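re the bet — no i am not wrong, look at it urself. input seq straight from the record:
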Amino acid sequence: MQLHIPRAASKSARTLTEHEGKSALAAFGVPVPRSRVVSAGEASEAAAALGFPVVIKAAGAALEHKSEVDGVVLNVRSAAEAAAAAQRLSALSATLLVEEMVSDGVAEVLVGVTVDPQFGQLLVLGAGGVLTELLRDSVSLLPPFHRRLHRGGTRPTQGRKAARRLPWPPPADVAALVQTVLACARYAAANLERLVELDLNPVIVRPAGLGAVAVDALIRLEEH
């Protein structure tokens, strides 16, 4: 689900690969999983080096929404499983992204920056992962993002709609989520003239004190 108001369509816009996008965000302080970009034949070795369990994804730049084409294999727990996953995914992409798997999350949050023709950049927060379309629980914030976040803007997924549908999770690391969102906003501000679309879905929020991790990223930039 695309929770954004895009810029006018441009033939010069380019979608970064997931690895490129995460590397760019990490430079601004967004926590991302440890990862390697490899060929299918190197996937088992890369998975073992990162430590099981891992996630293996098709890494082609044209695959903006990998889950829609079965381009993601979760919870890979052995070299044999990694080899089998890599063989299947190689039909979608010549290169694969092997990442450590975050398995202790207590909440999934969508974080995005949209570009509104009237207001400019808007920060979008909502229920993430598989709940994005189910709950449709989101909020859009105007700048200054830092001030609005500390008024409680990071809590849309703990609102009444989410509360009616889900059991209360263990305490989540809300402070880490705030820092992740602010880091995302810093990246957006630094790319103000180029950013077309930015979606982190989901950011996995871990238990209190253990942080938050952006496990998927989609960034589209204008080419100059």
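see?? The chain is about 30% helix and 30% strand. told u. also The CA atoms of residues 39 and 150 lie 43 Å apart. so pay up
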